[in-house]
Amino acid sequence: MSDLQRSFAKAKLAQFPLEPPIPSSAPLEEDKNAEEEEDEIQPLPESQQDEDSASASSASSASSAGTIRPNNPILWTDYFAQEYYLENVRSDETVIYHVYVIPPLDKGPLFVLHHGAGSSGLSFALFAAELRKALPCAGVLSFEARGHGETVVKTPDGHIKGAPHDLSLNLLSSDLVDAVKLFQAKLDWPHLPEIVLVGHSLGGPIVTDVALTGTLGSSVLGYAVLDVVEGSAMDALQKMNSYLATRPKSFSSLASGIEWHTRSRTLRNITAARVSVPSLLCRSLDKSASRGESGPWIWRTDLSATEFYWENWFAGLSKKFLEAKGGKLLILAGTDRLDKELMIGQMQDAGHFIHEDQPGKTAMVVADFYRRNDRSALILPPKVGESLKRKP
């Protein structure tokens, strides 16, 4: 980026209000970026006062005014058509990947979604539904990484592996590629449809790595990274343990877990919290509980146990993002930092989980990104088309 472009970006961004960052599962601040015609980032539509804004503002008012709002869980079936358990047998382990799916129609594209650390495939539930509205033929595969959601890793003798899991970037990237290929085989597709990779936080480095290595071939049109850049990610990791120490260790019910996420403004969209938060928690094996009673709800993923991998996830991300083939989209939630190699745009009224806080607006930008990179929509200029027709 030229000095002129960077100066212009900083001048424009200075007009926006700043918010203090809210740490989350893979803590990042609020930013947004782009490069070149197909490598784009643009301000999200501000004119659309839809459910995103209403839900985000209601979460804010509930937090400040103590309003009692429903915190009962919402089932995944309200947003996805199917779920699959895809078994991948390796020499040293068997991984059963859990994915939520909306099948593509006709020759529609497939959006492959990867959540952040400590999150789950249901973090994309509202986004997936909004994306299908914007692109009626599009399909969605929302993947759950090992150690997250309902994905299970087993030893060769069939025992389930517990934490700590191997969460190295290479293995996580390999898992995502294998899951996509297993899904292709499950649906008996002769070849993969056009694919757009979308990764939030930790998912960003993973989809970027998949695009860089080219392991899904020419089917990948491009990749979108949500709220993560290398510089701010590496800085935020230094505060991660302090943040984790402030989180509740357990909850008495799923409803109380949902309430904590909205009151702390970790999630600013109540509906999104009601869908995704239950998948982040599981019952503890509390030996002190009375017979017939269950223990409290605890975090399904122990983020502290993943510390060994934190730098491995984000180191070199900016360079990889710019070098990988395909269209590039970077959406960040705020304006407080500039990464050396990237220009920043902004999404207002959203925290780190931008796809949950503002699912409709995020889906609109991702849908437009697909349209700009859709090869099937490529139309040759008239003179080129005529000359091709004249050739014997």
Question: What is the element layout, followed by pairings?
Answer:
Layout: H1 3-13, E1 33-34, E2 39-40, H2 51-65, E3 82-89, E4 94-102, E5 110-114, H3 125-134, E6 139-144, E7 152-154, H4 169-186, E8 195-200, H5 203-213, E9 220-226, H6 230-237, H7 240-246, E10 250-251, H8 254-263, H9 270-276, E11 281-283, E12 297-299, H10 310-314, H11 317-323, E13 327-331, E14 343-344, H12 354-357, H13 359-373, H14 382-390
Parallel strand pairs: 2-13, 5-6, 5-8, 8-9, 9-13
Antiparallel strand pairs: 1-14, 3-4, 4-6, 4-7, 10-12, 11-12
Helix pairs in contact: 3-13, 4-5, 5-11
Secondary-structure element sequence?
HEEHEEEHEEHEHEHHEHHEEHHEEHHH
Mean of the pLDDT scores? 81
Low-confidence sequence ranges? 1-50, 60-66, 337-345
Q: Helix coverage percent of residues?
A: 25-40%
Number of DSSP helices? 14
Tertiary shape: globular
* Main structural class: alpha/beta
Outline the biggest β-sheet: 9 strands, mixed
Question: CA-to-CA gap between the ends?
Answer: 45 Å
The rounded Rg comes to 21 Å
The total strand number stands at: 14
- The fraction of residues assigned to DSSP E strands is 15-25%
Summary keywords:
alpha/beta, globular, 14 strands, single chain, nine-stranded mixed sheet, 392 residues, disordered N terminus, three-stranded antiparallel sheet
Q: What would you say this structure looks like, in words?
A:
The chain is an alpha/beta fold. The protein has 14 helices and 14 strands. The strands form three sheets. Strands 2, 3, 4, 5, 6, 7, 8, 9 and 13 form a nine-stranded mixed sheet that branches. Strands 10-12-11 form a three-stranded antiparallel sheet. It has a two-stranded antiparallel ribbon with strand order 1-14. The radius of gyration is 21 Å and the shape is globular. The N terminus is likely disordered.
